């Protein structure tokens, strides 16, 4: 085919890498996405041993990927667990309390990316006060000894 023929733009052939480039890391069925939600993707970086954000909640579901280090992750009603680099996590948002997202390592930083579906007019993160934590203590999974 000459460069004057239809379909030939004079460019090199396209790569076929796209056919195998995609790896599904996580699938989830969130209970809801707030109407009119806005997606926000953030990078969180904690220094070694940092406890992370105080107990909080998000107005909509959040989906994350651990880039570096380890995070202690705990949602209301679930036991705490450690998320390591290369692993994913998600939370439903709404009324569910997110107790922990701190750095599990004292010798290295932790970095993770989170994409949240935020309800319009609400902050992406709302702290939970001590009174509410006390009222809902029965919803927290047993703590490790």
List the helices and strands and how they pair.
Elements: H1 18-21, E1 38-46, E2 56-57, E3 62-68, E4 70-75, E5 81-84, E6 88-91, E7 98-100, E8 110-118, E9 126-127, H2 130-135
Antiparallel strand pairs: 1-8, 2-9, 3-6, 3-8, 4-5, 4-7
In short:
Helix content is 7%, strand content 32%.
Description:
This protein is mainly β and 145 residues long. It has a domain at 51-128: Jelly Rolls. The protein is 7% helix and 32% strand. It contains two helices and nine strands; from the N terminus they run H-E-E-E-E-E-E-E-E-E-H. It has helices spanning 18-21, 130-135; strands at residues 38-46, 56-57, 62-68, 70-75, 81-84, 88-91, 98-100, 110-118, 126-127. A four-stranded antiparallel β-sheet has the order 1-8-3-6, with no helix packed on it. The protein has a three-stranded antiparallel β-sheet with strand order 5-4-7, with no helix packed on it. A hairpin with a 5-residue loop joins strand 4 (70-75) and strand 5 (81-84). It is globular. It starts with 17 loop residues before the first helix and ends in a 10-residue tail after the last helix.
Which descriptors apply to this entry?
145 residues; mainly beta; 4-stranded antiparallel beta sheet
Number of helices: 2
Biggest pleated sheet: 4 strands, antiparallel
CA radius of gyration is: 21 Å
Elements, N to C (H/E): HEEEEEEEEEH
Parts with pLDDT < 50 across at least 5 consecutive residues:
none
- Broad CATH class of the domain at 51-128: Mainly Beta
CATH superfamily of the domain at 51-128: Jelly Rolls
CATH structural architecture of the domain at 51-128: Sandwich
Roughly what percent helix? Answer: under 10%
Structural class: mainly beta
């Amino acid at each position: 085919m000459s460069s004057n023929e239809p379909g030939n733009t004079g460019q090199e052939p396209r790569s076929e890498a796209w056919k195998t480039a995609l790896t599904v890391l996580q699938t989830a069925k969130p209970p809801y996405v707030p109407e009119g939600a806005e997606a926000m993707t953030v990078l969180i970086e904690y220094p070694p041993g940092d406890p992370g954000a105080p107990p909080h909640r998000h107005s909509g579901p959040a989906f994350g990927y651990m880039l570096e280090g380890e995070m202690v992750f705990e949602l209301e009603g679930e036991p705490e667990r450690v998320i390591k680099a290369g692993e994913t996590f998600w939370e439903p948002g709404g009324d569910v309390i997110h107790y922990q997202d701190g750095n599990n390592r004292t010798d290295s930083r932790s970095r993770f990316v989170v994409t949240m579906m935020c309800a319009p007019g609400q902050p992406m993160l709302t702290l939970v006060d001590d009174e509410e934590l006390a009222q809902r203590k029965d919803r927290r999974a047993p703590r490790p000894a």
